[in-house]
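Task card 7
Instruction: Convert sequence to structure tokens.
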Amino acid sequence: MTDFLRRTLRKRSERIAAGTPDGIPCMARHPAGAGRWSVGRVLTGPGGARWEPRRGEPVPLPGGRATGVRPPSVKEGISINPGSRIVACAYGSGEPGGTIEIAVMPFDLRELLDAVPQAGQDNLAP
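Output:
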């Protein structure tokens, strides 16, 4: 294991032990399939999960549910880490609802799937 990976995993375990006050580091595309990938974090709390981009307004994910997990395409791998996993999410119900794609590293995938309830267990294996 490389020093970088050890350091990254140590920071992750420290973050989890502290109750994840700084959220899950990720990149997201909102709405799903459109626009650019933006750096941010998924935060959880009493009001539910929300995505907070580094710049811009937070996106609350009321009733958020993960609908699928996939690796990035070759084109997406240019913008985001090609080793990441993309979680497609739907949130809200009716007209105010929307979609978002959240890209996380594989060691943060389980934490994200715990934060955003899963729509179906069959297609969401980490």
